[in-house]
Amino acid sequence: MPSITLPPPSEAGLQHSKALQNTIQARINAAGGWISFADFMEATLYTPGMGYYSAGATKLGYAGDFVTAPEISSLFGKTMARQAAQVFELIGYSDILEFGAGSGKLALDLLLELEQLNHLPRQYFILEVSADLQQRQRELFEKCAPHLISLVQWLTSLPHEFNGLILANEVLDAMPVHLVIWQDHHLYERGVTWDQQNFEWQDRPLIAGELFEIAQALPPFKEAMNHDPFRYLSEISLANRHFMRSLAQILHRGVILLIDYGFGQSEYYHPQRNQGTLMCHYRHHVHDDPFYLPGLQDITSHVNFSAINEVALASDLQLLGYTTQANLLINCGITEVLSRTPADIPHQYLPLANQLQRLVSPAEMGELFKAIAYGRGINQPLIGFTRGDKRRLL
Question: Dihedral of CA 285/289/293/297: which sign?
């Protein structure tokens, strides 16, 4: 159980979680009594009709478990529209492909602002694995911008080829991660078992395969070889790496823009971060127990942007920029977007000014959240990365 007191679930929620728990338990039994944490995380988040992102509970916004930047303020999407418009001008294509669009708020704000800028895309594709979220996105457009819904097309798989802007805001952090332990001169993978009543951790030697090869190349491995005793637990996301390879395969000409919380490799595997970055979100409470109420809470980890960059460059993508969310938004003109609301109308201006602070303040989202961009066929700097270059940290 988490060490903090969390709001109690409803009886229906408990029953839902119990059903998913039984499904995962059967999966563990079928696998011989042990599954990787990546498999456990994938099951809790994405089991059809039962996983956190696949079932019908409210997840986003103040009524859910966490709030994303587009939910905090329309300033986020309106500002990002300026970056999208520049991409359209640079490449001559105007399609957008968004992953994990959540409530649809980013898509809505982007399109409304692009309409004002006279830069509406030819098509706005949303790849959404959750049928429930897809329906909510559709309802948002029907309510707020029915004249734009014809531009939106929902996908369930990647297109074979894409030209335009690929956008993923807080997508990488929700992809399954493997848990690896560097201990003394050995490597272990932490997995999940079932002890007849509860899920339990169980570590197994890691001796071969893609995960083993990556773990050997990371900073904790050198420390484990040189120090005894030594123990370090952290995450490795194979899913993030595979995702980047997939995007590189489909992008013919355009830009990939990823926004998420995370670090470069040296900071990600800092000696003081020896318990990893795994976090759970339940009704705006943060804790570290991924076994608590499966299906009712989000499980995330920070993003290793150096790993993303290594895969992208190996896939012949061009690194266009790496900076903080604060720099991205300021470079794209968020203060100019705010200034369209007169400061002498305080009941309109002050809430927006407070929202801007949440998006750019170092104490809020401004520094922890990073933006990284890759491209093909781009021969000019992107406006979002003109100041605040952080590529040296990759």
Answer: positive
* pTM, to two decimals: 0.94
Q: Are 96 and 88 contacting, i.e. CB atoms less than 8 angstroms apart?
A: no
Distances in Å between the Cα of 349 and the Cα atoms of 69, 116, 340 are 18, 20, 9
340: its two tokens: 């369209």
Residue 48: how many CA atoms within 13 Å on its side-chain side? 0
Nearest-angstrom CA–CA distance, 49 and 47: 6
Query: 167-223: per-residue pLDDT in tens?
Result: 999 999 999 999 999 998 899 999 999 998 999 999 999 999 999 999 999 999 888
Q: Is the dihedral of CA 79, 82, 88, 94 positive or negative?
A: positive
Q: How far apart are CA 57 and CA 16, in angstroms?
A: 10
284's tokens: 């705006």
Question: What's the Cα-to-Cα distance from 116 to each of 107, 119, 202, 336, rounded to whole Å?
Answer: 14, 8, 55, 14
Q: How far apart are CA 304 and CA 299, in angstroms?
A: 16
Residue 174 DSSP code:
G
| Angle (nearest 5°) at CA 149 between 146 and 155 | 155
How many Cα atoms are found within 13 Å in the side-chain-facing hemisphere of 267? 14
pLDDT digits (tens, 9 = 90+) for 296-355: 999 999 999 999 999 999 999 999 999 999 999 999 999 999 999 999 999 999 999 999
